Amino acid sequence: MKRLISAALIIFASAMTAGAQQGGTVIGGGGVNTRTDNSNDYKPRQRYVCVVPQPQSSSQQYPNVCRATEGRVGGRCRCDGVTGNGTLQLAN
Q: Which of 44, 46, 54, 71 has the most CB atoms at less than 10 Å from its CB?
């Protein structure tokens, strides 16, 4: 019985050291190492919005904002269902 327990401990310890030798830093919590930290990792896409200011005669205080296709920031754009042109900006 002692030999069985010592053999199981040796196998368990060797499995733990083999798992610890995998390269990279685990981003998430414990468990399986599925993602490592490196400079070429996930980078989110830039998102663009069209901001159409309200006319002086409007009682609405905030500008109309809609999603837009990518383009030159600061360029002109249009929102569906809104009167006037807007300015293309990067979303925060």
A: 54
Cα distance between residue 42 and residue 69, in whole Å: 21
> C-alpha 43: how far from its chain's center?
6
| Domain assignment present for 20 | no
Task: Please give the residue range of the domain that contains residue 81.
Answer: 48-90
pLDDT digits (tens), the chain, 92 positions: 667 676 666 676 665 555 544 444 444 455 565 666 666 667 778 899 999 998 888 888 899 999 999 999 999 999 999 989 999 999 98
Q: What order do you get walking across the sheet with 48-52 strand by strand?
A: 64-68, 48-52, 86-90, 76-77
